[in-house]
From TrEMBL:
Belongs to the TIM50 family. This is Mitochondrial import inner membrane translocase subunit TIM50. It comes from Theobroma cacao. Its main location: mitochondrion. Component of the TIM23 complex.
Length: 410
């Protein structure tokens, strides 16, 4: 019993000594760690890093799927087609601006010939004696048989595109010509055989036979030029009188009905009979179906409104002047031409060099007056003894001086 008690005391004392030693050791560790905190931190961090495993390598990039590559190919094809179409449209616009339809059609012949190439029998057939097994033989046989066909196939698409362009351009030009060209190549019917010697007097409307004015209090009003009635009545005996205006027929027809109740004017031509060029409507006298050597075009803007300046007879523009006698002053020259029938009126007009024909005609007539010519028609007109010319001049002077006709309106 006493031995058991002794053994228990020895065990308890040994346990207490171990506890004390452990406390001392832990206090030493704490003191050493408090004296070098940074060193312990570094050591601990290094130990932590050394304990971790290295990072895994990055995963390989995923390969492009067939769907993505297909999208890229389609995008490339789309941009390529857009560039090709844009280039073709640009080139077509350049051809339309630079070349006429006939020029493009002429240049397209070589392309058509290339697209319609057919190999000849000698080129298409292979020599039976030559098997073409040798390299040189193949080199010679392939071009003879296939080169032309391949070139023809390559040229087919451009040739078809050019044909479509030419067809479209022809249609567009045909529709444009309906608005820019006169309605017919013969604007007037054929002249009667008995009147083949008669000259054609073409007259403009605005500022030549009449003047159109607009005011706020009364609107539009059209005034007749002084002497226009006498002018038409007298010259209708010698000429085929035609009115050729750039106004619409809805304006020309009613105005001519009021202007010429006696129908001295045989035909009326309006805007549909003009040629539209460079933003203006021109009178094309070559479409009148009359001999150009027998046409006179009288207008206040003759050289600016006609495509045949050699047939033009300029006259002073009418601006509502009360003392205007331009139409009456022109009668002697026109009657002289009609009675003497020169072979080509264009040469006669060219001699006046675009001067005032009425004044220049009187000046030339005075220079050539002589006792031998006192009974000629020219002298009768100049001195006013000719019945028709004198009557016309007397009526014209009454109209102008009286102030009645120049204030009348259509």
């Amino acid at each position: 019993m006493s031995s058991i008690i002794l053994r228990s005391r020895i065990i308890s004392s040994s346990c207490s000594s171990n506890i004390i030693n452990r406390r001392v050791f832990s206090s030493g560790v704490v003191s050493s760690s408090s004296s070098n905190p940074s060193k312990e931190t570094i050591i601990s961090s290094q130990s932590i890093l050394s304990d971790q495993s290295p990072p895994p390598p990055p995963p390989p990039a995923p390969e492009a799927s067939p769907q993505v590559s297909g999208r890229k190919g389609w995008s490339f094809l789309k941009y390529g087609l857009t560039a090709a179409v844009t280039g073709a449209i640009g080139y077509a616009c350049y051809l339309s601006y630079k070349c006429s339809y006939e020029e493009v059609n002429e240049k397209a012949k070589a392309l058509r010939a290339a697209a319609s190439y057919t190999p000849s029998e000698d080129a298409s057939a292979v020599d039976e004696n030559d098997s073409c097994t040798h390299i040189t033989a193949v080199h010679h046989c392939f071009p003879q048989k296939y080169r032309g066909l391949l070139y023809s196939a390559a040229m087919t698409v451009p040739a078809k595109a050019l044909e479509s362009y030419l067809d479209l351009r022809r249609l567009v030009e045909e529709h444009v010509l309906e608005f820019t060209e006169p309605t017919s190549d013969k604007l007037l019917p054929d002249l009667h055989p008995a009147e083949q010697h008669v000259f054609t007097l073409v007259l403009d409307l605005n500022e030549t036979l009449l003047y159109t004015d607009w005011k706020r209090e009364r609107g539009w009003r059209t005034f007749k030029r002084p002497g226009v009635d006498s002018f038409l009545e007298h010259l209708a005996k010698f000429y085929e009188i035609i009115v050729y205006s750039d106004q619409m027929n809805m304006y020309v027809d009613p105005v001519c009905e009021r202007l010429d109740p006696n129908h001295y004017i045989r035909f009326r031509l309006s805007r549909a009979a003009t040629k539209y060029q460079d933003g203006k409507h021109y009178r094309d006298l070559s479409k009148l179906n009359r001999d150009p050597a027998k046409i006179l075009y009288v207008s206040a803007h003759a050289f600016d409104s006609s495509l045949q300046p050699e047939n033009c007879v300029p006259i002073k523009p009418y601006k509502l002047e009360t003392d205007d006698t331009a139409l009456l002053d022109l009668i002697p020259f026109l009657e002289y031409v009609a009675r003497n029938s020169p072979a080509d009126i264009r040469q006669v007009l060219q001699s006046y060099e675009r001067k005032d024909i009425a004044k220049e005609f009187l000046e030339r007539s005075k220079d050539y007056q002589s006792p031998i010519h006192t009974n000629t028609l020219l002298n009768d007109i100049l001195i006013g003894t000719h019945d028709d010319a004198g009557e016309c001049r007397n009526r014209g002077s009454k109209v102008v001086s009286g102030g009645g006709e120049e204030n009348s309106y259509v």
